[in-house]
Amino acid sequence: MGIVVENVSKRFGNFAAVDSVSLTVKTGCLMALLGPSGSGKSTLLRLISGLETPDSGKIWLIGQDATYQSVQERNIGFVFQHYALFKHLTVRQNIAFGLEIRKLPKAKVKRRVEQLLNLIQLEGLGDRYPNQLSGGQRQRVALARALAVEPQVLLLDEPFGALDAKVRKDLRAWLRRLHDEVHVTTVFVTHDQEEAMEVADEIAIFNQGHIEQVGSPSEIYDRPATPFVMSFIGPVN
Ligand code: ADP
Ligand code: MG
């Protein structure tokens, strides 16, 4: 199994941000965590990544108990909404960063970077700096950098959240194509139901720290399991 979350809780003071959540993400699956702001999506992602430790429960990554592993031990790629790239490094250098830290041979790094530039369809822009790219191009570079080290798991927290509607739409289709090529187990946080519907294999609907329903986009849309899901999903326009 890709990711197994077992009865995980996380409190801040008396407040349960994540309240006894269980969730399975199959290997190679792209799972969206969808729900309103403050419902616990980012906290669960941070628990999966190791940036937070659960108060109770277990987290398994690719068959290993990762509950108390450090971030480094988990071999995870991340992309967040902001501050994704190093400003003083070119696109190539940004993508190469994690590979150089791991002291891979230079020729190998070079080959891998060119492959990734190709994958994100930015072949001609490798020598640019982040401020010479559009917002959408920057997030594609951030994805390439996250994928460079061949993570077991890719975690995306509202990666397109800061971009305008047209660019977001293009990136959805683009992320879907990328996932179909790379097939890394991915968890994608969003509060945008249309985005989740279009990109994800499966969707987990969050509400106040718990999960209301998990299912494919069509299951969630056609057969909402609770009144909350019904009102949150509504018609997709
Ligand atoms: P989402 O990503 O769904 O918007 P979050 O997981 O970021 O929600 O937050 C869930 C709840 O937990 C929110 O009410 C938030 O204020 C609270 N929370 C998250 N992180 C912290 C923290 N470090 N300290 C205190 N409260 C937090
Ligand atoms: Mg969030």
TrEMBL record:
Keywords per UniProt: ATP-binding, Nucleotide-binding, Sulfate transport, Translocase, Transport
Annotated ABC transporter domain residues: 3-233
Membrane topology, from the record: Peripheral membrane protein
EC numbers: 7.6.2.9
GO CC, alphabetical: ATP-binding cassette (ABC) transporter complex
Subcellular location: Cell inner membrane
Domain of life, source organism: Bacteria
GO MF, one example: ATP binding
Protein name: ABC-type quaternary amine transporter
